[in-house]
Amino acid sequence: MIVVTGATGQLGQLVVEGLVNQVPVEEIAVVVRDAAKAARFGELGVEVRVADYNEPSTLADAFKEGEKVLLISGSEVGQRVPQHKAVIDAAKAANVALLGYTSILGGPAADFELAREHQITERYLIDSGLPYVLLRNGWYHENFTQALGQAIANGGVLTSTTDGAKVASATRADFAAAAVAVLTTEGHENRAYELSGDHAWTYEEYVAEVSRQLGKEIAVSRVPGEQHREILVGAGVPDMFAAILVGVDEAISRGLLAVQTGDLSKLIGRPTTPIAHSITEGLQAAQA
Ligand code: NAP
């Protein structure tokens, strides 16, 4: 069996869809906290198991011996260390064959706040003695393009990155395809993949493409970190999360999210999706 946690999330759904296209459905299970959200998978014949990362007892029956498991990192920033440890403990108790984890580009080298929980999880997983595979995901294109409507309404793309800073992002679907590849092929035990897009773009290139597709000039609005944080807080972002977002921009300025190893395109057997594609989708969603 191949088991995917976080399967009702945006990445998880793409992973399950990819698996359904490649392996018999009887060999796929999902671990979700809300069975109703996974009804679509159940109808396809995928086994639906219910467990919550916050409730270790619910994880006791989530995995079985010999299964390959993908732990999709949780979305509750600040809560994720005990959550991920609980999943790893349950997988260890079940004696699974492989535990894949969606980590962060750079792993131990990613020295910014948002990466901290991933680093602790990686260490815990490695020390558990379970066969593991680390999918160190770079940034999703969609982190930028999903908010395009708002950026356009506000007159520009707000950032506290420095001039010339680059991001080697890729689509969620690209990262999902990499997860499907490591779950359906052999030889990935105890490896770490640094996953990022084939092209590292600057904010200037990004807004130039947005402007070209929109037929209207959009600017980069560059502000210092402290001002960026104030703007985010003023827009309703909780202070702690605003600080985390500014920390990400600072990491981008230091090139941490522009790392390119080619691991992603190698794993998925095709070039990663250009950001222009996600810009088109983002603009369509903004205009819908
Ligand atoms: P997402 O849509 O927010 O999905 C998160 C998944 O985690 C959902 O399925 C959610 O379940 C599940 N989850 C959260 N807390 C849980 C809990 N206590 N117990 C069980 N399941 C729980 O995020 P995504 O876009 O798929 O991304 C996957 C993960 O990558 C995120 O969770 C985050 O760690 C990380 N991430 C990466 C990037 C990047 O650019 N690389 C960007 C954002 C996030 P429900 O469906 O029930 O809510």
Could you provide a short overview of the structure?
By secondary structure, this protein is α/β, with parallel strands linked by helices. Helices cover 44% and strands 16% of the residues.
Architecture overview:
- The structure is a single chain.
- This protein is α/β, with parallel strands linked by helices and 288 residues long.
- It is built from twelve helices and eleven strands.
- The protein has helices spanning 10-20, 39-44, 80-94, 113-128, 142-145, 148-153, 172-184, 203-214, 225-234, 239-253, 263-268, 275-287; strands spanning 2-5, 28-32, 47-50, 68-71, 98-104, 132-137, 156-159, 166-167, 191-195, 201-202, 219-222.
- The strands form three sheets. It has a seven-stranded parallel β-sheet with strand order 3-2-1-4-5-6-9, with helices on both faces.
- β4 (68-71), α3 (80-94) and β5 (98-104) form a beta-alpha-beta unit.
- α3 (80-94) runs parallel beside α4 (113-128) and α8 packs across α12 (275-287).
- The protein is globular and about 55 Å long.
- The termini are far apart.
- The model has no long low-confidence stretch (mean pLDDT 97).
- Residues 6, 8-12, 33-34, 37, 52-54, 72-76, 83, 102, 137, 139-140, 143, 172 line the site of NADP nicotinamide-adenine-dinucleotide phosphate (NAP).
- NADP nicotinamide-adenine-dinucleotide phosphate binds at residues 6, 8-12, 33-34, 37, 52-54, 72-76, 83, 102, 137, 139-140, 143, 172.
